[in-house]
Amino acid sequence: MTPAADADALRTAVLVVAAGRGIRAGGGVPKQYRLLGGQTVLGRTLAALLADANLGRVVVAIHPDDLPLYLLASAAHAGDPRLLPPVHGGHSRQASVRAGLEALAADPPDVILVHDGVRPFVDPALTARVTTALTAGADAAIPAMPVTDTLKRVTADDTITATVDRTSLRAVQTPQGFRFAALLERHRAAAHRDDMTDDAALFDRPEDRVVAVAGEPGNVKLTTPEDFAAADMRLAAGRRVATGIGYDVHAFGPGGSVALGGVAIAHDTGVLAHSDGDVALHALTDAVLGALGDGDIGTHFPPSEERWRGASSDRFLSHAAGLVRARDGAITHLDVTIVCEAPRVGPHRPAMRRAIAAAAGIDEDRVSIKATTSERLGFTGRKEGLAALAIATIELPR
Ligand code: MG
Q: How remote is the C-alpha of 131 from its chain's centroid?
């Protein structure tokens, strides 16, 4: 049997532990929700696990306060039936794992992999080694790496007292794999304590067979700011920058308001358009599509289609941004220049910036809005209409 067939036969579920409060990595949010290359760490972890066809259900143990952060981090997978609703973790890692196991107990899988939410570089070859070891009869299988640094034993005042033989030592990673029923039983039996930081440690009976499989050097746990800096560099090395340009024009027409940058601005005219005629959002959408090399706004939202009549144009930009995320990319920056004699853009700039950032799913400091007149020259100068030019900068995997 291939490892894939084994995993399928075993019905493997994954429990991702992401209830920690650690903010020492910086960014003001728990580290699993920090952005890494434009996506949250947890979002990357989920993407890596859900891309592995050998894995079945995935459930995440989160802190109850983090539900809004979790919903954002997991939004790209909201439609994936393998991603179960999150469970509320406990006040310790052990309690969070227990909560996740209990949530799966009603329809128990055969095998459970317990994985740290802050190890986003997990890959299918590693999970296959873990599940294969379980198929071969192990009670627990954990990825482990040789220790390469020389190890010293020290006293409380940092005096070195001995060199530790490292040949029999391993640094362990996740995912750690277990037979589900056995791990649930061990966790229930250990409910009186609260100090287990490693699930394999529950398998300490003489008859237990816990095996180490080869870990991955890249499967790092992101904890410190230095870990994040290294991970950012690693991702950047595998990515390319692409830019795209967009241009759009609409003529003024009957009406009393102009949609511009996602904001309705009262004006003595409206605009002639099939949709709401928001030149800024249309130019930005074309710029993002241009960076992707994926046609233009007319290809994705044909004006011939009745359903786009009067459409609010933020959905066009949201759609383009979703195409970037679907390719594991990220929007680095959006810059738009609006050309018109009127209405005045300045007073609405903060609201436009908010609306564009929200539609694109990026931070406001990655959105720039500029405005100019055309010195009364040309169609914009004659107040016959308005125009916008935009540039999008995105990152894509190489
Ligand atoms: Mg247009």
A: 25
Calculate how far, in angstroms, residue 248's C-alpha sits from the geometric centre of ligand 1: 5
Query: Ligand 1: distance of its center to the CA of 385 in Å?
Result: 12
Centre of ligand 1 to C-alpha 242, Å, is: 23
Sequence-distant (≥ 6) Cβ neighbours of residue 246 within 8 angstroms? 282, 283, 284, 285, 286, 287, 288, 289, 290, 388, 389, 390, 391, 392
**Who has greater pLDDT, 320 or 6?**
320
**Residue 5, pLDDT above cutoff 60:** no
pLDDT band with cut points at 50, 70 and 90 for residue 311: confident
pTM for this structure? 0.68
CB atoms within 10 A of CB 330: 22
Q: How far apart are CA 379 and CA 146, in angstroms?
A: 70
How far from each other are the two terminal CA atoms of the chain, in whole angstroms? 34
Q: Which of 87, 57, 62 is nearest to 73 (CA)?
A: 62
Angstrom distance (rounded) from CA 114 to CA 129:
14
Please classify residue 266 by burial: count the beta carbons closer than 10 Å to its beta carbon, then call 0-12 exposed, 13-18 middle and 19+ buried: exposed
CA-wise closest residue to 116 among 36, 31, 3:
31
289 and 282 Cβ atoms separated by less than 8 Å? no
Q: Give distance in angstroms: CA of 346 to centre of ligand 1.
A: 21
Helix axes 314-326, 279-292, angle to 10 degrees: 20
Instruction: Determine the distance separating the centroid of ligand 1 and the alpha carbon of 282, expressed in angstroms.
Output: 5
